Amino acid sequence: MKVQFASQYWFLYAAIxxxxxxxxxxxxxxxxxxxxxxxxxxxxxxxxGEMPKRAVVDGxxxxxxxxxxxFREL
Length: 74
Description:
Layout: E1 2-5, E2 8-16, E3 23-29, H1 34-48, H2 64-67
Antiparallel strand pairs: 1-2, 2-3
């Protein structure tokens, strides 16, 4: 999700528990690209010990999910 603070745009990444529908992790980045997406998923793996089994994305170009066939996009 793209959000604006003053005159700058930032990109919100969020992980939601599918059972509770609650945000379990969120981070804001100044860019949306392969490296920021990879950083977000590395943080998730470090915190929770594994990669998520499912991912929903907003269709951004060049995301980690498009390069990693192990994820199922919904």
